[in-house]
Amino acid sequence: MTHALLVRKAVEWLRGYRCGVVLSEQACVSGEMPDAIGWKRACHSVLVECKISRPDFLADRGKPFRQNPQLGVGSERFYLAPRGLIRPDELPPGWGLLEHHNRQIKMLCASRKNLRNDEGFRCEMNLLLASLRRVEIRIEPQTVTEFLKWKNRMAEYNRGRFPEGVTPPDEEANFYLQPEAANAELADLSDRGASPGRGKAELA
Q1: Domain coordinates of the chain in residue numbers?
Q2: Which tens digits make up the pLDDT trace of 130-179?
Q3: Which candidate, 25, 24, 94, places its Cα nearest to that of 66?
């Protein structure tokens, strides 16, 4: 088991944990570089730190954002490690524990859901903005805004119609742009194993 493989597993787990946006190994201004972090609706964030050895886990305790938890990111915070590497009684207060064994991830301990404070939220915003800037640098001379509007330009060149198979931006599924009530309905559909595009009759 390598650290890179465990990080990929963490990203997969976060997507299955209903995080719509997931980043891995991106730094923020506090110096923290989460192995994987995802965001659910209402800006609720979930941090996963991956550890493949005891020395790595023990060294993590000495980092400034562990010694001073209010600097840390993540409304929920988890360690992910191979089975038996970390004991539940060794976890920082409020943290959860995920174990990887036989290609599966099992939640051994749940995390508290309110670990992030205002300073942590600012660090998350910095992480997101820094990541967005990295995207903009890579797509120059386009800007992020131009890149996001490429479908509109395609429609302009197609007599106002979007090409077949291209979804207009206002029809794209993006629960971050939906009211809380709609988000709750989507979460309920997900719990029941249904696709958001299916009607009630299909769920019966």
Answers
A1: 3-118, 121-195
A2: 999 999 999 888 888 887 787 777 777 777 777 777 777 777 777 766 77
A3: 94
